[in-house]
Here is the input.
Amino acid sequence: MSLAVQEGDDEVRVRVPAKINLALLVGPRRLDGYHELATIFQAVSLYDEVAASAGEGEDVTCQVTGPDALRVGPADQNLAVKAARLLQNEYGVTEPVHLTIDKRIPIAGGMAGGSADAAGALLACARFWGLDASAADLAGLGSRLGADVPFALMGGCALGLGRGEALTPTLSRGRCHWVLAFSERGLATPEVYARFDRLATTRPAVPQAPQELMMALTSGDMARIGALLANDLQEAACSLRPELAGLIAAGTEAGTLGTIVSGSGPTVAFLTADEQAATELALALSEQGVAHRIRLAHGPVAGASLVRG
Ligand code: C5P
Here is the structure.
């Protein structure tokens, strides 16, 4: 990937997708505190945009816009800011940068919004500063920031092993149509994993790649994909947010191909047969008032990509 800045660039803007884990199989907790995973990521058409432009004074400044902007924590905890600082350190950059993040992915929603912002900042800043960084270089730095960052850069559909950062792209035919139901309050991922550990009666085995689901994705059999959606964190997320049970039941009753809590939750993703079925389900759920916000999305879509600069 060539990241040379073009003459006259004053802003570099990158669009980064959210993800859904179609399968999230969780194994034992490792010595580094992470859990061994076998997961199938799918990037979906719900995006944050990260822009890099000339900064002043401080190394990295950051402004967040979007419906939940006020809920974003302080800048020094923002993964996008950490990503920009990491690039500065690794490449010896002294030039400051200002980041603008337009947030559409729910905060602490189980859709890797923070990781998307980190991925966006890595790509936008590398381009803005004209760094000679390959896609593999950025993915390597990304995995130091969070387990989901490499996938946000890659997009599409992928098998994730290890902490979820060891990625293999997987074949996928057809388009998944999703209805996404957001909750008002997010869930902290470490808390959900801790609840998973507490709920486990025996030590879980190291999970294997979900072969049946991968075959269903290759053939584009949406009904089969729906039947094979699996999330080992779902019970933990639902025990921390009991109201999710009503939301899941409402969607199931209205008719879906499959329903899953996305990642560590609390976002719930309903798979539908086509765009019309998705619209109808979204309307039915809106009328029942069972979710804070509802969005339609499809997948798979491309990973972090330049929209300007
Ligand atoms: O890597 P990331 O910062 O996204 O992970 C957030 C937290 O989620 C980790 O600190 C850990 O508690 C938990 N986690 C885990 N096993 C994974 C991924 C995340 O236990 N494979």
Summary: The CA atoms of residues 1 and 134 lie 5 Å apart. Confidence is low (pLDDT under 50) at residues 4-8. The pocket of cytidine-5'-monophosphate is lined by residues 33-35, 37, 146-148, 163-164, 189-190, 193 (CB under 6 Å).
